[in-house]
Design brief:
Blueprint: H1 5-22, H2 28-46, H3 48-52, H4 57-80, H5 89-95, H6 98-104, H7 109-112, H8 115-132, E1 135-139, E2 144-148, H9 156-172, H10 182-202, H11 206-221, H12 230-249, H13 251-268, H14 275-292, H15 303-313, H16 318-326, H17 331-361, H18 367-389, H19 396-415
Antiparallel strand pairs: 1-2
Helix pairs in contact: 1-2, 1-8, 2-6, 2-19, 4-5, 4-17, 5-19, 6-19, 8-9, 8-10, 9-10, 9-18, 10-12, 11-18, 12-13, 14-15, 14-16, 14-17, 15-16, 17-18, 17-19, 18-19
Amino acid sequence: MILKPIAARIITLILFFYPILLLTVRGGMNALFFILSGFSIYILINQREAILTKLDNYVLFVGIGLSSGVLAVLLSQIWHWSFIFPSFDSPSRLLFAIPIFIVFRNIDAKTISTLQYGFPLGAISALLIALFMQDYRINPVAVTAGLRASNVFLNPIHFGDLALIMGLLSVFSLNWMGSDSRLVILLKVSGFLSGIIASSLSGTRSGWIAILVVMIAWAIVKRKNWVYSLKRIMVLGACMLAVATVYFCTSEAQQRLHDTYQEIQLTVNGNLDSPIGLRFQISKAALKMFIENPIAGVGADGFAPKIAEYAQSGLVTGKAAFIGGMEVHNHIFGSMARYGLLGLISALLIYLMPLLIFMKAVKQSGSYGRVGAMMGICLVLSFMVFGVTVEMFNLKMIAAFYGLTVAILLAVATSDAQHSDMN
């Protein structure tokens, strides 16, 4: 598919700026997402003959996975005959990412490659915010105040996780379009370190686990050709040394590690209202709701009143009911409690559908698809880890970021080579 020069420039600018605007401008992520989605629909309609001839089973799999959230919400609301339209906001971002995936499979690599500069600049922007816009923010689980970096429209957990994923994507984009120059390597490594430091200043602990999980996945993928990746190994080794230095030399990281130790001790000693104890209680309540309402869950607005009932019966404490009424703090448990089996399947598909495609595509010989697939594995695994302790997709801007990024990387991973066994 051949894009007109103006169309190629618009796409290039959006891919360059959306990681930068993610944490710097309120509403910037959603605005660029819908512009690109609308633009993709326009291209799809006007060049449908050229695009439709290249449709394969990847389009079917991605379409099912990214539309499953909207379908789960819709069927659950039909079941309860209670329609709450704002509950479609976040799942719709994944749905509108489907035309982006279809169109971007037909767009040249040079246009898409601009993304590799947006991620490090986005991470560097996050660090600047963390350094110069720190404020006292309340941790609703611990109900304590502390100096944790964030911006004016996100809490420290989401801010730290998003800064970290942009840093990780920066370093995993090394040599995406061939051998990077020293200047580009410097930019990407700087983006990686900036994301790590910004996440550290936010005190977000789930990110620390995500780094470990992603690096293990990278080691597994590279185990057979490590000799040919010596340069990358040296760069990533230096980055991991920097990670250790950052986390163990900043007071915020040390304090959060100390908090973790104390929270574990409190929970072991039977304090159900410790931060860890609260999450266990909320998860237990979510599992009970699913067992009692396995088909369609308790509905989009049913979790808060139901957990309040559990508090009255003594199943959970009042504090757990209060916290759980605001957020379940686990993406999969929240989905299965609200939308039943439909929600559980949807939550799994959002992760596993792209992950399986990326794992298959990472074996490709071409760097364009292979590196894009590794970036995709990094993205999905990180969000899986984040989702254990926080409902990332409750925020529309985060759903838009995940939907757009996973759609682009899926397009990259599946456009480099058409696998005959998938057709």
